[in-house]
């Protein structure tokens, strides 16, 4: 997985021009929570309320990425285990921590990144479906263990934890894994009892204490989502003003030079 970072572009696809040595460093928000707690749904709602969801992804000021893109590639023996539901995808070792850190660093340094999507049917990264992350103002990074790794946790400007009760999460995970992830009921329940539940208790749940905002009931909590959206809206407005001022300053300097 090399070459996922591209050099900083001078002119962004969303029309924002960067001065030669200016870096567009986004506000990075971590969104953690147990499996099927509603992390992706919360991110989607935030994007929708900010008017970003319907925008072409090259134009967005707010982008959302998933920790799934950083599952490490499995050895042939691990692949066989995974096919039988006997690989622990909820353990921190299932992720490529270094790549996750380097990618977030690159994004924070205003570089474009290309992330593979994740194919749950084959338990592997899908490099044919790559999500291009252009420099944005706000980046949401969601996943079960985004607050687990201290080095990564320290990169976030804001940390959200989606706190949905475990019965509800299991009731959502079962139909989702059967309908969308190509699993059968027996495998879903065995994986849940063997790996998912114990790993949630050992690795994910303890990271709730690092959150700045805990969102009980996930996407149903419209009050919490409204407050978060309001906060992000203020960040975007401040960024737009700063960019406008910078453009005016650059134009004034160039007029003065030409004179
Ligand atoms: N508030 C909600 N009410 C009903 N279903 C929901 C709600 N939030 C999420 N879901 C459903 O639960 C499943 C898991 O949600 P998702 O947002 O993908 O969770 P996560 O990203 O935490 O795994 C999906 O099928 C989604 O449509
Ligand atoms: N090949 C895989 C990879 C991951 N999982 C499960 O996905 C869960 C994380 O995704 P959420 O959208 O639910 O947060 C995690 O609990 C893994 O068990 C999988 O089943 N197969």
Question: What is the secondary structure topology, with strand pairs?
Answer:
Blueprint: E1 5-6, E2 27-33, H1 39-49, E3 62-66, H2 76-83, H3 97-108, E4 112-119, E5 124-133, E6 138-142, H4 150-153, E7 158-163, H5 166-179, H6 185-204, E8 213-216, H7 222-258
Parallel strand pairs: 2-6, 2-7, 3-6, 7-8
Antiparallel strand pairs: 1-4, 4-5
Helix pairs in contact: 1-7, 5-6
Bound molecules: adenosine-5'-diphosphate (ADP) and ligand L45E5XJ5.
The site of the ligand Nc1ccn([C@@H]2O[C@H](COP(=O)(O)O)[C@@H](O)[C@H]2O)c(=O)n1 has 10 residues, from loops.
Protein name: uridine/cytidine kinase
Domain Phosphoribulokinase/uridine kinase: 28-223
InterPro entries: P-loop_NTPase, PRK/URK, Uridine_kinase-like
């Amino acid at each position: 997985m090399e070459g996922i970072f591209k050099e900083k572009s001078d002119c962004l696809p969303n029309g924002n021009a960067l001065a030669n040595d200016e870096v567009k460093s986004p506000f990075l928000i971590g969104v953690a929570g147990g499996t099927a707690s509603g992390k992706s749904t919360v991110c989607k709602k935030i994007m929708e309320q900010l008017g970003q969801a319907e925008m072409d992804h090259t134009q967005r000021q707010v982008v959302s990425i998933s920790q799934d893109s950083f599952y490490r590639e499995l050895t042939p023996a691990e692949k066989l285990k995974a096919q039988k539901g006997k690989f622990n995808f909820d353990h921190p070792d299932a992720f490529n921590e270094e790549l996750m850190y380097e990618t977030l660093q690159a994004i924070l340094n205003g570089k474009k990144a290309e992330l593979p999507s994740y194919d749950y049917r084959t338990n592997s990264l899908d490099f044919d479906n790559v999500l291009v992350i252009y420099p944005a103002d706000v980046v949401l990074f969601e996943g079960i263990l985004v607050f687990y790794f201290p080095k990564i946790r320290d990169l976030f400007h804001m940390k959200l934890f989606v706190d949905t009760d475990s019965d509800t999460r299991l009731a959502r995970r079962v139909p989702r894994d059967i309908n969308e992830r190509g699993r059968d009921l027996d495998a879903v329940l065995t994986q849940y009892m063997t790996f998912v539940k114990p790993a949630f208790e050992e690795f994910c749940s303890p990271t709730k204490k690092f959150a700045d905002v805990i969102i009980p009931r996930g996407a149903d909590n419209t009050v919490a989502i409204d407050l978060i959206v309001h906060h992000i809206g203020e960040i975007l407005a401040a960024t737009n003003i700063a960019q406008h001022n910078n453009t005016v300053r650059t134009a004034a300097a160039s007029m003065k030079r030409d004179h």
